[in-house]
Give the backbone structure.
Amino acid sequence: MNALALPLARPASVASEPARAKPVIRLEAVTKIFQPRGRTAPVTALADLTLDIAEGEIVGIIGRSGAGKSTLVRLINGLEKPTSGHVIVDGVVLSELAESDARTARRSIGMVFQHFNLLASRTAAGNIALPLEIAGVAEAEIKTRVDELLGLVGLSVERDRYPSELSGGQKQRVGIARALATKPKVLLCDEATSALDPETTGQILQLISRIRDEIGVTVVLITHEMAVVKAIADRVAVLDEGHLVETGATFEIFAHPGHESTRAFVAATAKVDMPDVLRTRLEAEPIAGGATILRILFSGPHATDPILARLSRSTGVEFNIIAAQVEFIGGRPFGNIIVSVPWSKQTIDTIQASLQGLGLSSEVLGHVA
Ligand SMILES: Nc1ncnc2c1ncn2[C@@H]1O[C@H](COP(=O)(O)OP(=O)(O)OP(=O)(O)O)[C@@H](O)[C@H]1O
Ligand SMILES: [Mg+2]
């Protein structure tokens, strides 16, 4: 079973809340323009981006290749300065700091990388100790802290193993523990699960979610995978060609994706799709005596009601279920079902109006003979 499909225990209130009171990260009208060498035109990697991330939130930032995700990471951790606008982390305006101060400020941000970036010459414990040694923490204190962190990520037994003796998932656990060593306010995860298989991805995401619950760290997940966002993010921000095109509670983004780019991400992760045999026969225009294929999204207060049975009784129409799934996003049920019904304009209009009346959305996917 794909671990990503598992609903994670989380208070339902968190998922529906927009940014909570106190922002830990504040991006104010941030624009980043690169001037590549040579005579190429300047590249606007981020354009007028404004976003607040509240303390203790898990925010997923998703975008296609070239959308500006890595640029955003480098701005949040102070490695790059915006061309205009402000980047404020934990009350410090990073975009205005001198390099030496920026280094200190960076300690309030823990970075987790796609390829772990562990030192091959150091054990798990040694890698976790490194940022503490650099920060000049006393030896005894380092030892206590490293033990604590190894326990937190479930690696106490593997403490003396070298990276080459650890699995990908274990290496990422070391990466997470190291990122948390200096007790940062923010955990910035850049494609942290992209090199892992789906099951290990699920375990790492559950670990991140548990860490947020236990220590209240704010988590920013940069990813191109909607499944990652769906598994643990409270809120989603969608980047497209440098623009922030959509933000919202994860559940709302899934239930009502607004931007074309968001719809593409949502569709790519939907596990419910038409069988190919049907898809190839799909026509855009209705066919007399044929059937209409409808997708119904079940969300909101009626998500778990026996809607199809009720609709069938009230309209006298028999539904043929082609594909269906109910999953939990942000702790709330989200159903996705594809049905076929005998075509008549009146029938389809009635069904869609009834669904709309219940706050459920539906979409005609096409028609078959
Ligand atoms: N140092 C640079 N000089 C010039 N252009 C740059 C530089 N860094 C990034 N860019 C450009 O800015 C845009 C955004 O790049 P960025 O690396 O942030 O995208 P991304 O969303 O991380 O993509 P991917 O998913 O492929 O990693 C791209 O068009 C890229 O070519
Ligand atoms: Mg990138």
Summary: Residues 276-368 form a domain with the Alpha-Beta Plaits fold (CATH 3.30.70.260).
